[in-house]
Amino acid sequence: MALVNIDNRITFALSVTDRHASADWYVEKLGFTLLFHIDEAGWSELQTKTDGVTLGLGEQGEPKPGNAIPVFGVPDIDVARAALEGAGVRFDGPTEVIEGMASLATFYDPDNNALMIAQDHTSQG
């Protein structure tokens, strides 16, 4: 049995130098749909052509190519994190909360690949 209840959504997060220009590129070249820009968080998100799969663009001064991080949706980040930490999974710092958007936590697989879990706060009421 799985330790964490992963839902049917995944976000691939990429680091970019200019989120707005990159979002325009994905819209124009690949037909993705812009969902939102959150300038204070340095984040933009686009809906891909695949149900449940979004592309997140995080603005970085010097992004490194090949840095895509899968972000798995979970219904309760505290429960998921506790289960993974209880099984010895290493996390990178505390859970980050972006009010009105999401709670995020970065963790690592055995080969030190970064992964994230996220609880969506946009659809909660």
SS-based structural class? alpha+beta
Mean pLDDT: 90
Number of strands: 8
Strand residues, percent: 35-45%
Distance between the termini: 30 Å
Helix content: 10-25%
Please give the oligomerization state of what you see: single chain
Task: List low-confidence stretches.
Answer: none
Largest sheet: 8 strands, mixed
Protein model, in words:
By secondary structure, the protein is an alpha+beta fold. The chain has a single domain, classed as 2,3-Dihydroxybiphenyl 1,2-Dioxygenase, domain 1 (Roll), CATH 3.10.180.10. It is built from 2 helices and 8 strands; from the N terminus they run E-H-E-E-E-E-H-E-E-E. It has helices spanning 19-30, 77-86, and strands at 10-16, 33-38, 43-47, 53-59, 69-73, 96-98, 102-108, 114-120. The protein has an 8-stranded mixed β-sheet with strand order 2-3-4-1-5-8-7-6, covered by helices on one side. The longest helix is centred in the N-terminal third of the chain and has 12 residues, at 19-30. The N and C termini lie far apart (30 Å).
Outline the fold blueprint.
Elements: E1 10-16, H1 19-30, E2 33-38, E3 43-47, E4 53-59, E5 69-73, H2 77-86, E6 96-98, E7 102-108, E8 114-120
Parallel strand pairs: 1-4, 5-8
Antiparallel strand pairs: 1-5, 2-3, 3-4, 6-7, 7-8
